[in-house]
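Can't paste images in this forum, so I'm doing it all in text. The chain is below; anyone willing to post the predicted C-alpha cells underneath?
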Amino acid sequence: MAERKRKNLRKNIQFQIKDFSSIYTNQIFEILKENFENPWSKKLINSSCKISKVVLEENKVLAYICVDFIFDEAEIHMIAVKKQLQNSGIGSFLLKEILNILKRKNVKKVFLEVNENNKIAICFYKKFGFKEVFRRKKYYKNKEDAIIMELIL
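Text version of the structure:
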C-alpha cells in the first residue's frame, strides 16, 4: 500500500503511514515502554501480524498498530502513540486507516482488549463505535479486568 501523508493541524506535524519494518523495532519498543507497565518484547513486536503499520515523521516512529484477521473478524493487538503526541489526532488517523483496510478485506467485526482502568483508551475506542461485549475478570497481574470491545463494520 502506498504511503499516506497527512498534516496534523493541532501539532503542525507532517506524518506518513508505512508498513512495519524491523528497522523500527527499537523506536516502537521505546513508545511501548512509555505507555505500558509491561510492554511487548522486541521479539513480540517483530512477530508478524497480518497488518502492522507505523506513523512516521522524518523516519521517527510516532505511533504503531498491529492487527490480525481471519475470514471476517479482526483483532487489534496493539495501538500506541508517543506520549507527548497523544490527543494530537495521530491515533485517530491510524485507527481510521486500519478500519478502512479491514473493510476492503471484507472484515465485519473488529475486537480488542483494554484494561478496565485505561479510561482514556476506552473513551477513544467508544468514539469509533466500539462497545464492551465481555470482561475477563482479574485478567491482569494486578487483578484488574480486561474489557473486550467489538466494532461492527
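The radius of gyration is 15 Å. Helices lie at 25-35, 42-46, 90-104, 119-127.
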